[in-house]
Inverse folding.
């Protein structure tokens, strides 16, 4: 199923349960800068090799492949330098120093910690510690305004622009409630990760509007202030004991990426249905349900913005931060059968079904 999210005055319209079941995509992804059929808008391509440094947090994935493929299809010759923090932000100062010395044409940054570490916070970036005079294009940043990366989505106002990869929280909750009416929603999250904290704040507000109870369990921290992976099973057990009927897995690198196998397997053992705001944990680790943008398509959308900078000479300060307007409902049927927790037939008719 493809859910289309329509911009409205002051935000995004909430999609009702009936509308969620009714809406379905009909065609390819609509990316800015692309003509029907996926062909790039015609533009002169400079006869040169561009240099792009990609700063990642979990290795190369479909979003990076989509980014590279789109630029290749535009006819750009690109020399990529890949740097991966592996989730360890203490590696960022050395990477920033390398970028400042080598001066690539553009920096591609994956995730909130990497982007903040590279570009610094809006209004307080330090040219001695951050990249302030080279274009930075980010992706997989959940809340760039709340994280202090840009002051507003429509006009970033600095050397930074990029893409958001998740649907609005209201639409995510519509998807959960379309699958199964609930009274209590559980969430286990890393309290040290900005994406997670902002997402939980949004969940609190939205569940309160709907008369739902949010059952929160932050992952305990060790004496160095780091989340303890070994504590995840106990946190999931507490959420279950407190009556959560669905587990929300947000855009949390620690939970949904580094420890996704543990989260999905333990939730399944506890017979706790899972919803994810991203697709990987459903496709690879048998979480139950997701409402997600395709990572490859997000990479392509990010590349559209990079091409505007490299080919057209546009300033990132004037290029809006955007997300795709279409999101797919993904259901893992192996997990459905294991839990004996079946969705309405109307949702099955439109969802992408995974049989693994």
């Amino acid at each position: 199923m493809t859910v289309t999210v329509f911009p409205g005055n002051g935000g995004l319209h909430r999609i009702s349960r009936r509308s969620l079941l009714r809406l379905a995509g009909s065609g390819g992804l609509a990316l800015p800068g692309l003509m029907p059929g996926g062909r790039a808008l015609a533009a002169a391509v400079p006869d040169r090799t561009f240099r792009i440094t990609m700063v990642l947090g979990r290795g190369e994935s479909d979003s990076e492949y989509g980014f590279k493929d789109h630029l290749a299809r535009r006819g750009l010759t690109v020399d990529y330098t890949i740097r991966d923090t592996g989730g360890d932000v203490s590696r960022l100062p050395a990477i920033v120093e390398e970028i400042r010395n080598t001066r690539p044409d553009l920096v591609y940054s994956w995730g909130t910690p990497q982007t903040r570490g590279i570009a610094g916070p809006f209004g307080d970036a330090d040219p001695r510690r951050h990249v302030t005079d080279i274009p930075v294009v980010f992706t997989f940043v959940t809340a760039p305004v709340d994280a202090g990366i840009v002051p507003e989505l429509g006009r970033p106002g600095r050397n930074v622009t990029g893409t958001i990869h998740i649907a609005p929280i209201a639409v995510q909750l519509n998807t959960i409630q379309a699958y199964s009416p609930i009274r209590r929603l559980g969430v286990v999250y890393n309290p040290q990760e900005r994406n997670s904290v902002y997402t939980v704040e949004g969940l609190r507000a939205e569940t309160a509007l709907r008369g739902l109870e949010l059952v929160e369990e932050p992952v305990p921290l060790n004496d160095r202030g780091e989340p303890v992976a070994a504590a995840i099973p106990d946190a999931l057990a507490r959420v279950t004991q407190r009556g959560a009927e669905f587990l929300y897995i947000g855009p949390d690198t620690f939970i949904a990426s580094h420890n996704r196998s543990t989260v999905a397997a333990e939730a399944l053992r506890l017979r706790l249905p899972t919803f994810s705001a991203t697709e990987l944990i459903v496709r690879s680790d048998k979480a139950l349900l997701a409402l997600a943008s395709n990572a490859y398509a997000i990479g392509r959308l990010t590349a559209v913005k990079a091409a505007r900078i490299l080919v057209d000479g546009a300033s990132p300060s004037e290029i809006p931060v955007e997300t795709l307007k279409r999101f797919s409902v993904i259901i893992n049927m192996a997990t459905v059968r294991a839990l004996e927790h079946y969705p309405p037939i109307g949702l099955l008719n439109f969802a992408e079904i995974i049989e693994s």
Q: What stands out?
A: The chain has two domains: 31-165+294-323, 169-292+329-354. The domain at 31-165+294-323 is CATH 3.40.50.2300 (Rossmann fold). Confidence is low (pLDDT under 50) at residues 6-42.
